[in-house]
Amino acid sequence: MRQLLNTLYVTTHPAYLRLEGDTLCVEVEREKKLQVPLHHLGALVLFGDVLVSPALLRRCATDQRSVVLLDRNGRFSARLEGPVSGNVLLRRAHFLASEHAGQNLELARSFVAGKIRNSRHVLLRGARDSRDDADRNALREAARHLARNLAGLRGAASTDSVRGLEGDAARVYFGVLRHLIRVDRRVLFAYEGRNRRPPLDRINALLSFLYSLVLHDCVSAVEGVGLDPQIGFLHTLRPGRPALGLDLLEEFRAVIADRLALTLINRGQLGEADFETRTGGAVYLTEQGRRTVLTNYQLRKQDELTHPLLDQSVPVGLLPHVQARLLARALRGDMEGYLPFLMR
Fold it and tell me: What is the mean pLDDT of residues 43-64?
């Protein structure tokens, strides 16, 4: 199993990253702010106008260390990688499975089953913790609807049918998400449903930002085992789209991103000063808000959960890597079918 390595997030403007021996140095206005051994880092995620020396970029490429460029709002811009590596037989099995209707359907069904099951877990947990009867009833009714979606997956005869069930489950889930918000959901954290590109309220701004962080980890995970992140099963192929990374993300939206978003809001760790509204109504996290989210996201990745298949404790940050390895084993035929991660 691949060792979980740290990810360095750089949000300071302007910052300059350079190579010094076997260490990475971060300078701000010619003053060294950070120096860390490269072997401690698995990836670099750079926000906005962060500069990187050519020597450091070459070293990252040689070491197969990804460098991800996001804009100041956390939107993906580019991903820099070294030469393609990995097992050619695994990649061949991956490509063949994507073209095989039966295998494609089974894998798409597994990803969606994981998503719906974990979303339902979040709703039921919220219902148990709620002190408001209206919230509790809304969450339980939505959970029952998701249970019917899960049952419907067994009879789904095509990938399009699976996508339809996934879309219906997502609509219901996001439709009751406001019942999980415990603080100021009338004004500060008003929420009427999922929207994006751009997000139009604070909840959606936070969710979109967290989804981009988890997606980065999912793409890193599938690449780490030698799979092609652009060849997916649930998500359709599109130039530049990490379809397999998005497939894997579905399992972790609720249990990593959504739960963290709700925790940050309900504990008062994010407030009005952490968001800004742009011309046209788009809402984004401020630099201060991004720092708060990134700090807590890294802490969340250190928490440990019991993996239902391995029956052992695994750091949250390692879960995408575990699932990517299980997917690779399933594609090679080393195990019967792919089992998504299911929150207990």
Answer: 90
Q: How confident is the model at residue 13 (pLDDT cuts 50, 70, 90)?
A: confident
pTM of the predicted model over 0.70: yes
As a whole number of angstroms, the distance between CA 107 and CA 96 comes to 13
- Reported for 153-157, long-range contacts at CB under 8 A and 24+ positions apart, including other chains, are 153/109, 153/112, 153/113, 153/116, 156/105, 156/109, 157/105
CA-CA-CA-CA torsion sign (133, 136, 139, 142): negative
Backbone φ, ψ for residue 197 (5° rounding): 50, 55
Q: Tell me the pLDDT tens digit for each residue of 94-153.
A: 999 999 999 999 999 999 999 999 999 999 999 999 989 999 999 999 999 999 999 999
Fold of 6-80: Ribosomal Protein L15; Chain: K; domain 2 (3.100.10)
pLDDT in tens, 69-110: 887 766 677 778 777 665 788 889 999 999 999 999 999 999
**What type of residue is 90?**
L
CA dihedral 236, 168, 156, 326 (to 10 degrees): 60
Q: Where are the domains of the chain?
A: 6-80, 88-332
User: What does the DSSP assignment read for 216-258?
Assistant: HHHHHHHHHTT--TT--SSSPP-TT--HHHHHHHHHHIIIIII
88-332 CATH choice from 1.10.540.10, 3.20.20.70, 1.10.3720.10, 1.20.120.920? 1.20.120.920
Place 262 in a pLDDT band, splitting at 50, 70 and 90: very high
φ, ψ of residue 341 to 5 degrees: the values are: -75, 130
| Contact between 108 and 241 (Cβ < 8 Å) | no
Burial 279-298 (b: 16+ CB within 10 A, else e): eeeebbbeeebbbbbbebbe
Tracing tokens 């399933």 back to the chain, one arrives at 330
Contact between 206 and 194 under an 8 Å Cβ cutoff? The reply is: no
